[in-house]
Amino acid sequence: MLRRDTPTRSAESAFLIRALEHGDSVLTTGLVLQELLQGFSGPKARDQIVEKFSALPLLVPDRQDHIEAAALRVVCGRKGVQIGAIDALLAQLCVRHGLTLLTTDQDFHSMAKHVDLHVWGSSVRQ
User: Fold this and answer.
1) Confidence class of residue 8 from pLDDT cuts 50, 70 and 90?
2) Rounded to whole angstroms, what are the CA distances from 76 to 67, 81, 116?
3) Most confident of 1-10, 45-54, 65-74
4) pLDDT of residue 2
5) H or E segment and range at residue 52
6) CB–CB of 112/122 below 8 Å?
7) CA distance 31 to 22
8) How many CB atoms lie within 10 A of CB 56?
9) Euclidean distance between CA atoms 63 and 40, whole angstroms
């Protein structure tokens, strides 16, 4: 949603805006920050993103998160769901901390059908 010049009208972005406005707990990771920064060019955009994200606490993966993320990839791969290493690590951080992932990426919804990942707006695991 931050990759566009005009605001999106998705339910996810509306939920995020409300959560931020109400002071709800919103966490992110350095992985998300890095991906956003890679999608923009120019120092002004970079500085704006860094400034906005500085208000959010960062979850930092540890060694066990990387081990468990690899296991998530294996489980999903056996079910025919191919996920990238970074997505698996993001999912693992949510699993470990008991968090709900807010995303517009449908890969996470597919992943949640096979692992204990809670994705905002997803139905219960099948």
Assistant:
1) low
2) 15, 5, 11
3) 65-74
4) 34
5) helix 43-53
6) yes
7) 25
8) 15
9) 30
